[in-house]
What we know:
Elements: H1 2-8, H2 18-24, H3 38-44, H4 49-56, H5 71-75, H6 81-98
Helix pairs in contact: 3-4
Amino acid sequence: MVTLSHLRYLHKRLLLLRTVIEEHRKGLLIGSACEAGELYRAVLACASDEVLEEIASFYYYLEIQPAGNNMFLVRENLCTEKDIEEHNRRIYNLGKNYVN
């Protein structure tokens, strides 16, 4: 998969299409990633529970960063410290219910 990402999907950063991941996912532990991942971005954008459930169901585990790691979002006025706590809580609750 690393080779595929270098040879076929390198566009200034490594990338793999979801279809490629799904094709090779057997035996892999696929996580949701940090704030740059699709799940956190959807939480940040106030996506519906249905959308978040669909995203979360793809992952083996959901990643939650310490609040301090996402403080740049506060500095950039994208959310408040309280929002970060709520985002983490929402991801935690999704993980309890929807992760494979």
